[in-house]
Amino acid sequence: MKKILALILALVMAVAFVACAKGGNEPAESTSGESESANAAATYSVAMITDYGDITDQSFNQTTYEACKEFCDANSVDFKYYKPASDSDEDRVAMIESAIDEGFNVVVMPGYAFAKAIASTVNNYSDVKFIALDVSEYDLTEAGLTEIPANLYSAVYKEELCGYMAGYAAVKLGYSKLGFLGGMAVPAVIRYGFGFLQGADAAAAETGAQVSVNYAYGNQFYGDPDITAAMDTWYKDGTEVVFACGGGIFTSAAEAAAKVNGKVIGVDVDQAGIIDGTYGEGMTVTSAMKGLAPTVKTLLTAVSEDKFADYGGKVEALGLVSGNPEENYVQLPSATTQFNDTFTADDYKALVADMYSGKITVSDDITASAADLGKTITVNDLGNIK
């Protein structure tokens, strides 16, 4: 009987040893990458908070929402967007906290308006990854955040570069009476405008064209009858194309342009679809774009691969990463820019290559006055329209 029991015990131990050998800590052969990816995907979910607009704004919110949704759908990641009840820091904070309370641990926020909400929440949720778009270190410092924590990454953009491209393109395309209508005179908008002037100036110097630019701010990020009336005056006085730069303020420029078959230049995203579809086919000459969607894809990919630490704790200024226009974080839309014989798609590629190589340099100094940037062109600095 003892021999039988000893034999049974030996068999049990042998089976247990084999089970441990097969089911221990070592990963299964050739599936480790898939397992790690699956585990990473299971541990994060994404919330996007709108600033004070909606996901149909054809600008920051919509582009960010669509980029988040596309990534999350493709990778089977839970995603939800939240819209604050009003344009206030308190309501933006409330939405961030609601998302976190509901279990979302990656929060994506587009626009400088999030600075105070981020400063109020980021250090309270160290296990949540905060991804901000277009929130500068200056914005965060002014909001009271003295140090960028490891769970926060913010991308800002070199707007002066795509502004330069737009101004250069406008003059090379044959326009000589230009306008710049900014929203509020915040750093990003000023960089767009100053880049636009530098580009127009360079193209005028090359072509010998007599170029003038009306330069003004609406002091708000939406159009209204007063701003439309000002744009009516610009177009009636001969302005051919207006770079409308600042949220929904483009509506006033487009409304005025539609009355006289004028043109506009879009901003932040390719606005040809919404502007041409709403106000008149062929109205949008080009758009000075920021790479919001590529930024979202890059950061969410980093999260999925457990590489967010490579980005966290930074505010990065994104611009040109190669001489290929399509690979950069600032660019013109190749598909909808109205290229012609005097400025072709190849000319645009050559321009970007020269900017990337350093042959062309663009100043990001926003302390100068607009009028001082007109070395070849005439700049009519009109200040604030209202």
Write the layout of secondary structure elements.
Elements: H1 2-23, H2 32-42, E1 46-49, H3 60-74, E2 79-82, H4 89-101, E3 106-110, H5 115-121, E4 129-133, H6 137-142, E5 152-157, H7 159-172, E6 177-182, H8 187-207, E7 212-217, H9 225-236, E8 241-245, H10 250-260, E9 263-268, H11 272-279, E10 284-290, H12 292-304, E11 314-318, E12 330-331, H13 345-357, E13 378-384
Parallel strand pairs: 1-2, 1-3, 3-4, 4-5, 5-11, 6-7, 6-8, 7-13, 8-9, 9-10
Antiparallel strand pairs: 10-12
Written description of the protein model:
- This protein has about 375 residues and is an alpha/beta fold.
- Helices cover about 45% and strands about 20% of the residues.
- The chain is built from 13 helices and 13 strands.
- The chain has helices at about 1-25, 30-40, 60-75, 90-100, 115-120, 135-140, 160-170, 185-205, 225-235, 250-260, 270-280, 290-305, 345-355, and strands at about 45-50, 80, 105-110, 130-135, 150-155, 175-180, 210-215, 240-245, 265-270, 285-290, 315-320, 330, 380-385.
- The strands form two sheets. It has a seven-stranded mixed β-sheet with strand order 12-10-9-8-6-7-13, sandwiched between helices. A six-stranded parallel β-sheet has the order 2-1-3-4-5-11, with helices on both faces.
- Helix 3 (about 60-75) links the parallel strand 1 (about 45-50) and strand 2 (about 80).
- Helix 4 packs across helix 5 (about 115-120).
- The longest helix is centred in the N-terminal third of the chain and has 22 residues, at about 1-25.
- The chain is globular.
- The termini are far apart.
- Residues about 1-40 have low confidence and may be disordered.
